[in-house]
Fold each of these.
Amino acid sequence: MKIPILIILTLATTSYSSTDNNHVFSPCTDTTVQKSDGFTFGIAFSSRNASFLNSNNSTVQLSPCDKRLSLSSLGAQLAVFRPKVDEISLLTINNTNFQPGTPNIWRWAVRFDGVLNSRVGVLEMKCNDLGVFGIRL
């Protein structure tokens, strides 16, 4: 009688759990992901020209991970997110020191992740005077 109970308890304790096998937490590091893994990406908020190789040449856009950019000296801010693969996540930004409504500074945002297979995309960003904004990735 004790054996079936032990088997049931063992099965109950080894129930299915979603584990995160991706141990890369930097948006500037390449990795592979699978279902139930978390993946890290960043959004850089800055002026429009901050992500280009030089501000006069708007044809070569670089990833915020590129060391040739000096986003911090240009007043850019970074938000990093880690949602899970195949799950819908609500992404929020701590707005204590974040003011996306500042003219010409925060109305430009770039999504990025990885270096070797870097993916950079300009975001569609809507902002009102109260600092409430929405981003479409």
Note: The two ends are 57 Å apart (CA to CA).
Amino acid sequence: MPILIAGVTIDAHYYIFHGESFTAAVLLGVLIWENNATGTYQEQRIVHDKAGTDIYYGVEAVYKIN
């Protein structure tokens, strides 16, 4: 069963390079989420009721095309 979440993200970008046509940045953020789902499998009821907080990070590159 696919698990879908509802939540809020907060993140920050730190720009390493910012030129006219190219930009590079690193980002760091936090995702505060919850999941409330129910399902049935082989006549058994399955209940997912979870919440959590996850940290994420990444690298971002943007190239502008005119």
Note: The beta strands are 6-18, 22-41, 44-63.
